[in-house]
Specification:
Layout lengths: L8 H11 L3 E6 L7 H12 L6 E7 L5 H14 L3 E5 L10 H14 L2 E5 L3 H13 L6 H6 L2 H18 L3 E3 L5 H12 L4 E3 L3 H5 L10 H5 L13 H11 L14 H4 L19 H10 L6 H15 L17 E11 L18 E11 L2 E5 L2 E2 L21 H7 L22
Parallel strand pairs: 1-2, 2-3, 3-4, 4-5, 5-6
Antiparallel strand pairs: 7-8, 8-9, 9-10
Helix pairs in contact: 3-4, 4-7, 7-8, 13-14
């Protein structure tokens, strides 16, 4: 996108800790043609000296070749990476077509790694961008109009369908629309192994801000897939978390200051995509979920911690409090209130998409690896003290996949018949 997030691993992990998050998984995103191993080493070089809590890494697959396939194996066997992300959007940069995505899914299955998908129809997004700009719609509202929710829903359906043909679990990142959520629900009811992840932004605010008359305000809300202008979307997404149809809450935290967003002042397609969320995630979920009676406190733990630990095969080391697990603990006051503001948050970004929102539910104390690192609204972190947590392949998402392979083996439906010996038409040359 021509620039980098202002939240580095020091600032981002401090913001996470202040909000009650003790562990995160970041995305390694190689450039098209770049070695996955090289990109992984680059991310570790950025993270290890700065991070204030434990972390792990997903790796995006932005191109496909025998080299990529081999490097995925090395990452799983030797580097502890067991999740790989595919982009169906960002044509010409990160996007993979269906055939390559199929091969990535096949490789994920063989390695016991979970496939993740950014689900938007990238071809139609590119055409939508051209259409909006040709019509003179150059502001942030053009971002949402060029990639409406039907493109997210269509791509979500296609990704799950391809994963089902492979018979491998798939995780849909940042579910932002009713349409995409409905697709996930339908496939789960049909027995597909799919997990859906709404994010703090989609649960706490909406896309109407992109129609704000102040350009800088509007641009601050640009992310992909977009926040939807339907204000009831966040209510549905929370309902589906409560029912278990959506699995856990992420943030896709990727922050850019106003001057960086202004790279797209005359062309919305050049606005860097990304918003904050990692500091406010826990409070947003409690406020919109538990305080409204949709989630129980146990549900809160499930969707913010335990489910992710299971899906990404870190449970019970992470996501559970008991003897022998990591001493990552948050003391939570479900009655306390705070007002979210860029003036008081711990991000480096100069804007907060939840600005002025009073939320119920606050982390009063955060303990990482047995050390109190947040208490009485003060951070006491040690830069570089977090460690990389390698993950092992297979685990919970793959339970029963081998049995499904046997039951669904197409050879069981093969018809044994006598060879055909009749006449055969030969077309004339």
């Amino acid at each position: 996108m021509g620039t980098v997030s202002v939240d580095d691993f020091d600032i981002g992990s401090r913001a996470a800790i202040a909000g009650g998050t003790t562990f995160f998984i970041d995305f390694v995103i190689p450039a098209k043609g770049q070695s996955l191993l090289e990109a992984y080493d680059q991310w570790r070089g950025w993270a290890d000296p700065k991070v204030n809590c434990d972390f792990s890494l997903h790796v995006a697959v932005t191109w496909w070749s025998p080299q990529v396939s081999e490097e995925m194996g090395v990452l799983v066997r030797e580097r502890g990476v067991t999740s790989f992300k595919v982009f169906m959007a960002y044509k010409g940069a990160f996007m993979l077509g269906d055939e390559d995505m199929y091969h990535v899914f096949m490789r994920c299955k063989a390695l016991g790694a979970i496939a993740q998908v950014h689900a938007e129809n990238g071809d139609m997004v590119a055409e939508g961008q051209k259409k909006m700009l040709a019509m003179g719609i150059c502001g942030p509202e053009g971002h949402e109009m060029s990639r409406p929710e039907e493109l997210e829903a269509e791509a979500t359906n296609r990704a799950i369908t391809i994963a089902n043909r492979v018979n491998t679990p798939v995780y849909i990142v940042h579910v932002m629309s009713k349409g995409a959520a409905d697709v996930i629900c339908r496939h789960r009811k049909e027995g597909r192994r799919v997990f859906g992840e709404p994010i703090a932004a989609g649960l706490g605010t909406d896309g109407t801000h992109m129609w704000h008359h102040d350009w800088r305000h509007a641009a601050a809300y640009v992310m992909g897939p977009p926040l939807r202008p339907d204000p009831t979307t966040k209510t549905l997404l929370m309902d589906l978390l409560a029912s278990g149809d959506l699995s856990c809450v992420g943030t896709d935290n990727c922050t850019f200051c106003a001057d960086q967003k202004a790279m797209g002042k005359d062309d919305f397609s050049k606005i860097p995509n990304g918003v904050n969320g990692v500091e406010d995630r826990m409070s947003i979920v409690w406020h919109m979920g538990v305080a409204t009676g949709k989630l129980t406190p146990s549900d809160f733990v499930r969707v913010t911690s335990a489910n992710a630990a299971r899906i990404f095969n870190m449970y019970p080391r992470k996501g559970r409090i008991e003897a022998g697990t990591d001493a990552d603990i948050v003391l939570w006051d479900g009655e306390a209130k705070r007002t979210i503001s860029a003036q008081t948050h711990h991000h480096a970004v100069d804007f907060n998409i939840f600005e002025g929102m009073e939320v119920t539910g606050v982390a009063t104390t955060t303990i990482v690896a047995g050390r109190v690192v947040w208490e009485e609204n003060k951070l006491n972190t040690t830069k570089g003290s977090g460690i990389f947590v390698p993950r092992t392949p297979f685990g919970f998402p793959f339970e029963g996949i081998d049995i499904r392979d046997k039951v669904r083996d197409e050879r069981l439906r093969k018809v044994e018949r006598e060879p055909y010996t009749g006449p055969v038409f030969v077309p004339k040359k």
